[in-house]
Amino acid sequence: MCFNFDDEGQFDYLSGVAVDSQAKTPTGLERQTVPAQKYAVFHHAGHISEIRSVIAAIWSVGLPESGHEPVQGAMLEKYGPEFDGRTGRGGFEILIPVR
After folding, report:
1. Burial level of 30, CB count in 10 A (0-12/13-18/19+)?
2. If 0-12 CB within 10 Å is exposed, 13-18 middle and 19+ buried, where does residue 91 land?
3. For the whole model, what pTM was predicted?
């Protein structure tokens, strides 16, 4: 989850997992709520090391060509069960909040 973007390109990054809304948050961990909204979803089947160029391509080509307008909100990265954290392979998705 990437959020709190500023004009200089800085942002906060949170690595997390989905939990039930009633689950108790363990001491030392933070809970963030991702609001229900519309997202443009971009899948990349390549290596995780390509994430910066993937995000740049989304903003310069993919999103403008999608016909959707981005809105303020958290950008999400999603790693499915096919993603291998040891090798960085298996692909990922980038979700951009849109209207």
Report:
1. exposed
2. middle
3. 0.88
- Which of 50, 42, 46, 40 shows the shortest CA–CA distance to 82? 46
What is the identity of the amino acid at 6? D
Which two three-digit tokens encode residue 26?
A: 């363990």
Helices and strands in the chain, H and E counts: 2, 5
Q: Is residue 49 pLDDT above 90, yes or no?
A: yes
CB 95 within 8 A of CB 40: yes
Alpha helices (H) in 6-95, listed in sequence order: 51-57, 63-66
In the structure encoding, which two tokens stand for residue 70, read together? 């981005």
